[in-house]
Amino acid sequence: MSKNFSTADLVDEHGERLLVCDTQFREFGGHRRFSGPVRTVACNQDNGLVRELLRTPGGGAVLVIDGGGSLHTALTGDLIAGSAVENGWAGLVVNGAVRDSAVLAELPLGIKALGTNPRKSAKTGAGAVDTPVTFGGITFTPGDQLYADEDGVAVLPAL
Fold this sequence. Notes:
The chain has helices at 7-14, 48-54, 78-86, 101-104; strands at residues 19-20, 26-27, 34-42, 62-66, 74-76, 91-98, 110-116, 128-129, 133-135, 138-140, 145-149, 152-156. Helix content is 18%, strand content 34%. By secondary structure, it is of the alpha/beta class. Strands 1, 2, 3, 4, 5, 6, 7, 8, 11 and 12 form a 10-stranded mixed beta sheet that branches. Helix 2 links the parallel strand 3 (34-42) and strand 4. The protein is built from 4 helices and 12 strands; from the N terminus they run H-E-E-E-H-E-E-H-E-H-E-E-E-E-E-E.
């Protein structure tokens, strides 16, 4: 997907059809502007499914990780994000925390998250993959197109 977009221009172009996430994320990855089809993981302080999914071909997708807004443990760090880069993922949107932020900033990957915590999460694999997740006033559905830049995160639902 081209990086020649802005979420503000997309709002002007698509109006109410474009869903805009109200969550105020911080930037952590080396790419501040990224887009791709949505994939999802819902998990609570357990990144086992995140790790497994990012070890598979991403095909330019954006993984939306709903950690319930918890900042108690990190849902991704340098190793998991490195897998995302190696496997062709465009970015991560984390409704939760990340760690290894200095290394994440050097990766050619878009990463938005609520904040940081050095504490590791559980790795039991609890949660769900590719189910709709809702936060920030919108629902992220697998197959929708996500756009993220310095102004925020927007989603264009699949037709």
